[in-house]
Design goal:
N-reg_PII-like_a/b; alpha+beta; about 35% helix; copper ion binding; Ion_tolerance_CutA; Alpha-Beta Plaits; about 120 residues
């Protein structure tokens, strides 16, 4: 199962926290990092904008990405939210296995991962 990091932005901390908690509770993400205080400069509908935003980075599996995108779109205040999946090519195998075990329905893989940690 391929791993994806999902880069997203939100209007404020309340929105980011709600999205993050929902994604983890629904097992669409193993973890979501929330980084406050970002400034974004962009053009929207012909006008230059400069706004404060919150960055979120979710860790998930590739097969769960479509459901994650739909869930975020349904909770998000933006008309066109930034939600992009980035391939994870390598890393700490134990951490990548943890993501695989945490995302999706509770499974044998989840139980096996936790058993290995004991």
């Amino acid at each position: 199962m391929e791993i994806r990091f999902v880069y997203m932005t939100a209007e404020n901390m309340d929105e980011a926290s709600q999205i993050a908690r929902t994604l983890v509770q629904r097992r669409l993400a193993a973890c979501v990092n929330i980084i406050d205080g970002m400034r974004s400069v962009y053009e929207w509908k012909g006008t230059l904008q400069e706004e404060r935003e919150v960055v979120m980075i979710a860790k998930t599996r590739a097969d769960c990405l479509p459901d994650l995108v739909e869930a975020v779109k349904g909770m998000h205040s933006y008309d066109c939210p930034c939600i992009v999946g980035l391939d994870v090519l390598d890393g700490n195998n134990a951490f990548l296995d943890w993501i695989r075990a945490q995302v999706g329905p509770a499974s044998v893989a989840d139980n096996e991962w936790h058993a290995k940690q004991d």
